[in-house]
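Record type: monomer structure entry
Structure origin: computed from sequence
Chain ID: A
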Amino acid sequence: MSIQTILGAIVIGAIIGALGRLVLPGRQPIGWLLTIVVGIVAALIGTVIAQAVGVATTDGIDWIELVLQVVVAVIGVGLVAGLRGRSRV
């Protein structure tokens, strides 16, 4: 695993996490670092799901895989925000 792979995962995680937060309505009580972590995990899970259902890998942007990643990020942000909101009461 190279430094480029790690930096790439952080950048992709930040983008996927931010898209997940944008799609999810309302305010989420989580910080940017947790958003990136959720985004990285969502990107990995979305890729696994895409490969499991037979989405082909292309040279360009894999739109179906991207949509799956964002959907997983929305679910992840919702779960984390719900758990963090509940723990502060």
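Annotation 1: The mean pLDDT is 87.
Annotation 2: Helices lie at 3-23, 32-52, 63-87.
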